[in-house]
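Technical annex, item 7. During the second reporting period the consortium partners agreed on a shared format for inverse folding records so that results from different sites could be compared directly. Each record opens with the tokenized structure and is followed by the designed sequence. A conforming record, contributed by the partner at site C, is shown below for reference.
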């Protein structure tokens, strides 16, 4: 199967009118930009795309310019990160994109692995970070050793992405897979987008490459050096990244707060986007990042 086509799978993509394509550092980025005011960067997790923020972007756009890219290897972004999609290289590629857009985000919001990239981008700049279902520390016990090895094994097998994609195209399979993997139930638009993504072998290969290059042990050791104010919001029913992982990360970050999202799974920000947007706006208002006029409008 060929890569996702903007005039095929993307013809009814959420917020298509906000999309643009940007060429930078060997990558052809798909980016959605919406709203006005100070910039906020939204970073999706492994296997997702800009659609992950479909219901949150409009809620933030009244106060902020919202920038949401498809990460390299994902969605409609084309090209490869030179040297492989490690955390530092992904962050470097995003810095190049932001420079191209002449944007300096006042906050970075990330989901799952996107939260790890957000912290890497914020390092040394004290930029506020909000992480939903953050993947920041190694999984407990045997999984800490098995998961990276399994991801690498799957990544080097050229047939695996096609097998995943073919399985995903079975009727109802994506909905069952998402519920099993995340313990979340999302709306029909989200399922339609994930079906297009997971049913595409190029996208599956990009997600596997990202997982294969991830180094959570090093990231966990670096957390105490990150001085940014951080809000972590984690679903108590998340079975993809344990809630205890967020608790552990919160104790290692110098300025962090953890908010449990009761009864929600790994895609909590898609299950309850109004709650997620409210947490973002309130956190930034408390940090005096939200313009005074906009604060009044939100209340």
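Designed sequence (site C submission):
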């Amino acid at each position: 199967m060929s890569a996702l086509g903007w005039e095929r799978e993307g013809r009814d993509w959420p917020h298509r009118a906000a999309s643009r394509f940007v060429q930078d550092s060997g990558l052809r980025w798909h980016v959605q930009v919406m709203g006005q005011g100070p910039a906020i960067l939204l970073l999706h997790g492994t296997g997702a795309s800009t659609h992950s923020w479909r219901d949150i972007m409009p809620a933030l756009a009244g106060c902020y310019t919202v920038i949401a890219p498809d990460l390299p290897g994902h969605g409609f972004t084309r090209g490869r990160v030179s040297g492989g999609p490690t955390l530092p290289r992904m962050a470097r590629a995003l810095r190049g994109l932001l420079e191209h857009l002449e944007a300096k985000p006042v906050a970075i919001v990330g989901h799952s692995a996107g939260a790890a990239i957000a912290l890497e981008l914020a390092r040394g700049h004290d930029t506020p970070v909000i992480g939903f279902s953050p993947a920041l520390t190694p999984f407990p016990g045997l999984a800490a050793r098995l998961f990276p090895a399994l991801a690498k094994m799957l990544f080097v097998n050229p047939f695996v992405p096609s097998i995943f994609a073919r399985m995903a195209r079975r009727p109802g399979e994506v909905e069952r897979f998402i519920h099993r993997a995340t313990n979340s139930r999302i709306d029909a638009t989200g399922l339609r987008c994930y079906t297009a993504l997971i049913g595409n072998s190029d996208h599956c290969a990009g997600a596997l490459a990202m997982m294969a290059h991830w180094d959570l042990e090093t990231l966990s050791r670096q957390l105490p050096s990150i001085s940014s104010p951080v809000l972590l919001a984690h679903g108590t029913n998340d079975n993809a990244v344990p809630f205890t992982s967020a608790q552990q990360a919160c104790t290692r970050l110098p300025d962090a707060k953890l908010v449990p999202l009761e009864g929600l799974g790994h895609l909590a920000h898609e299950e309850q986007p109004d709650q997620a947007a409210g947490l973002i706006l309130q956190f930034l208002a408390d940090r005096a990042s939200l313009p005074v006029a906009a604060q009044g409008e939100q209340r």
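The two ends are 48 Å apart (CA to CA). The CA atoms of residues 114 and 203 lie 16 Å apart. All partners now use this format for quarterly exchanges.
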